[in-house]
Protein: Integrin alpha third immunoglobulin-like domain-containing protein
Amino acid sequence: MLPLRYGVNLTTHGFVTPSTFIFGHKPSSVGFTEKFNFTFKVVNVGPSKALGAKVEVDIPRHMVPYQHILLNILHVKTSLGSCDIKNSTNITDDYYQMTKPFIFEYLVFPPFEQRQRHMYCMKNDQMCLYITCMLGDMDVGKEANVLVAVEMNPTVLQDYPGKIAVTIESAAIASPMKDLHVLDLQEEKAACVFLRGHSGQMSVHDRAVILVTSLFTGGATLAFLVICLKKVGFFNRKIILMQASLLDEPQDTGEGYEF
Structure:
């Protein structure tokens, strides 16, 4: 006799508002000045009731390799059950003190070259925030909405060396209670939401790097040209011409004089 198994399919969809932002286009104000709302919807499409359903959400928090906090969770709301946040920290004034990168980092990452940064979470990543919402039992067709309100400190991005475009990826995975008699029918395990940011203008540090680099490059090029011209005798040309003109002048040999 075959054991009875129940098929469950929990689908997850998500979006973020606003989905894009621009940083560095206005005077830098230290602190968490940008607000975003991540929304995830979990639906049980059947064919059976989902017992002990839950959804797990991860959100990148730090701008690796720096330890400064980029995103912080304000609050989490769910239409079913309750939620718990992992790796959450109360923000104090210490988090507003930004440490400037070393000057060589600006030289390694040129400010005139835009680079792409893709931020995402690994399993048990200490640089991320994790939210677990226990939704309870969900009948077929029942849905649950999870709202995650976050705040961002754009100073972390503005002080990052070089000009960057950042993509912040947040993933949500819904699953029923683990049981030998429950068959998970999900085709796509995770719903990914992307928050994209672009640099509006270069920071003061980037402009200073461009100025210093330009002066150094120009001076080095000029010195190289001077050395090359000196090697080929460019600066001795007048002396050579004067010597040649002296050789071409008629010499007074003293002939034709009688004593």
Summary: Residues 202-241 form one domain. The chain has two domains: 6-91+112-201, 202-241. The first strand starts at residue 6 and ends at 17.
